[in-house]
């Protein structure tokens, strides 16, 4: 669907060259929600803006649905942009136009006829749940409502792709949830490919299928969201994940433990199995759960437990082997003192 | 005594009032018609914008600055050949309107440019991303978004024109300012001086109040 081939974007300001995006190659499949995470300045916004050529890459090629958009004429590019919707962190609605007019503007840009514009605008308003606000001005709306208008505008010309530039970063947690579920239903029901950039791992965890991590203009890690959450390789990825799954025990708590403290990752179906309860039935160890959490990523559970095993040394060892047989990821946090 | 002398100047004052109105209306009209597009050109040809064009931007910028740096009284005289060409005469309010228009166009254009500059670049970018044509962006995004600023610019231009029009007496343009200078200042007639100044104050206040009111009404932010 979207193919980025060796794209580099260099900004020159005051005689200095600043690299925004460095040799990025990426393939995003049709119908997926793809997340790009990174801290600010990592180049994720530049990369996203290259996808509809708001920024022209210094080198490299971008293909959307097989069309090389980097080679289009101005007019062709404008027509191509009708098929690529975009929403923004700060919404960027036309403040002098009503909600209705803001959405109709996109349809007008596509050269649609008047009744068609009217019909489609009302349909979009209904989809984003703003029928009652159609004659209000953006200044009268809440952040979440403004983003809904932004979404309706972006979807006006039935795009194949929706680009989201930190679309929920200016919203409160509840509104973020609502906007994310709207995006998710758009992806499912309309089959629109969504590319989003964010610095909030929560967003990626919530709706993305695949993700890429960016640092200093480069993509350092990419893959299935669940797999990256389960086996992050790069330090940055780990730190992003720990922002969602915080699993560190306070030092004083760890000090007072008498037994062996272990950390277990349960992945997929195994998380639902009663591994822990079987453990206590089969071995003469006492367990003491210090910390535990099950996250659902793409509706697949990912569980992390930290527990203390108390008992005779051999029995504890056997218990640990039992776990290792069933769960690949067992980490000993603290041995017997 | 005061009333009596006031009464005696009334016909002249009335004539002067309409002369002022005439000059300001014509030159304001012309500066809107020419200055608005010029202001838009100054803005959209700037770096990173819809019609980025250094050459046009520079030429228009220099031309605007050139006119703006000439004191109006000199412009008034220097433009006499042009005035002759356009109106067929070099005296009277119509003739004065030519110079007033020439002075007001760059002034208004710069104000328009400034109010366009206040639009969030993101809003323009969002319109580009939607696939709108540059023409559509100018008409449906830039101008509506800058509308409150443009209304303020019209107010400021109209008030400045009122001030400039006082100098129109040089070419026999007449008007309230000229009336005040000739009768009030040169003849030491304080009654006339005072009356005309009060009248000017009232007109300026009125313009400002109307301008502010309209600007508020069109501001949806």
Strand content of chain B: under 5%
Beta-strand fraction estimate of chain A: 25-35%
Number of helices of chain A: 12
How would you characterize the largest beta sheet of chain B? none
Give a quick account of the main beta sheet of chain A: strands, pairing sense, barrel closure. Answer: 6 strands, mixed
Estimate the global geometry of chain A from the Cα principal axes.
elongated
Features:
heterodimer; A: 337 residues; alpha/beta; 6-stranded mixed sheet; 12 helices; 31% strand; elongated; B: 221 residues; mainly alpha; 9 helices; 81% helix
Structural features, described:
The complex is a heterodimer of chains A (about 325) and B (about 220). The N and C termini of chain A lie far apart (about 55 Å). Chain A has a six-stranded mixed beta sheet with strand order 6-7-8-3-9-10, sandwiched between helices. Chain A has a four-stranded antiparallel beta sheet with strand order 2-1-4-5, covered by helices on one side. By secondary structure, chain A is of the alpha/beta class. Chain A has twelve helices and 14 strands. Chain A is elongated. The mean pLDDT of chain A is about 90. By secondary structure, chain B is mainly α. Chain B has helices spanning about 1-45, 55-70, 70-80, 80-85, 95-115, 120-130, 135-165, 175-185, 190-220. In chain B, helix 1 runs antiparallel to helix 2, helix 1 crosses helix 5 and helix 1 (about 1-45) crosses helix 8. Chain B is elongated. The interface of A and B includes residues 54, 81, 94, 96 and 138 of A.
């Amino acid at each position: 669907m979207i193919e980025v081939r060796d794209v580099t974007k260099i900004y020159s300001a005051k005689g200095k060259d600043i690299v925004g995006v460095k040799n990025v190659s990426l393939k995003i499949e049709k119908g997926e929600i793809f997340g790009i995470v990174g801290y600010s300045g990592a180049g994720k916004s530049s990369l996203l803006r290259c996808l509809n050529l708001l920024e022209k890459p210094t080198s490299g090629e971008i293909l959307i649905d097989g069309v090389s958009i980097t080679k289009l004429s101005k007019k062709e590019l404008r027509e191509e942009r009708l098929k690529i919707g975009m929403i923004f962190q700060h919404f960027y609605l036309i403040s002098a136009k009503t909600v209705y007019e803001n959405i109709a503007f996109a349809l007008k840009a596509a050269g649609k006829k008047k009744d068609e514009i009217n019909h489609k605008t009302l349909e979009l308003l209904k989809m984003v749940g703003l029928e009652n606000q159609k004659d209000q001005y953006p200044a009268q709306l809440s952040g979440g409502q403004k983003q809904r208008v932004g979404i309706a505008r972006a979807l006006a010309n039935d795009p194949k792709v929706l680009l989201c530039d930190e679309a929920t970063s200016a919203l409160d947690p509840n509104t973020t949830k609502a906007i994310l579920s709207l995006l998710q239903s758009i992806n499912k029901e309309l089959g629109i490919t969504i590319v989003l950039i964010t610095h909030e791992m929560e967003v990626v965890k919530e709706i993305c299928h695949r993700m890429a991590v960016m640092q200093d203009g480069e993509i350092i890690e990419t893959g299935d969201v669940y797999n990256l959450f389960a086996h992050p390789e790069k330090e940055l990825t780990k730190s992003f994940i720990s922002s969602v799954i915080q699993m560190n025990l306070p030092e004083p708590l760890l000090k007072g433990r008498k037994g062996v403290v272990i950390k277990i990752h349960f992945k997929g179906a195994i998380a639902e199995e009663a591994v822990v309860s079987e453990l206590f039935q089969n071995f003469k160890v006492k367990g003491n759960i210090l910390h535990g959490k099950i996250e659902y990523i793409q509706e697949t559970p990912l569980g992390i437990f930290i527990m203390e095993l108390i008992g005779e040394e051999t029995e504890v060892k056997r218990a640990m082997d039992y776990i290792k047989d069933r769960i690949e990821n067992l980490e000993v946090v603290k041995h017997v003192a | 005594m005061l009333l009596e002398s006031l009464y005696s100047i009334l016909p002249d004052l009335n004539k002067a009032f309409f002369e002022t109105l005439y000059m300001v209306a014509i030159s304001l009209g012309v500066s809107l018609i020419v200055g608005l597009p010029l202001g838009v050109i100054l803005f959209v040809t700037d770096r990173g914008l819809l019609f980025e064009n250094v050459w046009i931007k520079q030429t228009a910028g220099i031309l605007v600055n050139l006119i703006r740096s000439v004191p109006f009284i000199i412009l008034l005289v220097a433009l006499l050949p042009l005035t002759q060409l356009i109106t067929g005469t070099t005296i009277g309010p119509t003739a004065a309107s030519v110079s007033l228009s020439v002075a007001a166009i760059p002034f208004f254009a710069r104000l328009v440019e400034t109010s366009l500059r206040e639009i969030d670049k993101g809003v323009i970018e969002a319109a580009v991303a939607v696939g709108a044509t540059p023409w559509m962006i100018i008409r449906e995004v830039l101008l509506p978004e800058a509308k409150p600023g443009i209304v303020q610019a019209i107010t400021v231009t109209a008030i400045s024109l009122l001030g400039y029009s006082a100098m129109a007496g040089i070419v026999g343009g007449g008007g309230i300012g000229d009336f005040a200078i000739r009768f009030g200042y040169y003849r030491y007639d304080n009654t006339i001086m005072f009356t005309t100044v009060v009248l000017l104050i009232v007109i300026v206040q009125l313009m400002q109040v109307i301008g502010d009111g309209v600007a508020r009404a069109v501001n949806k932010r």
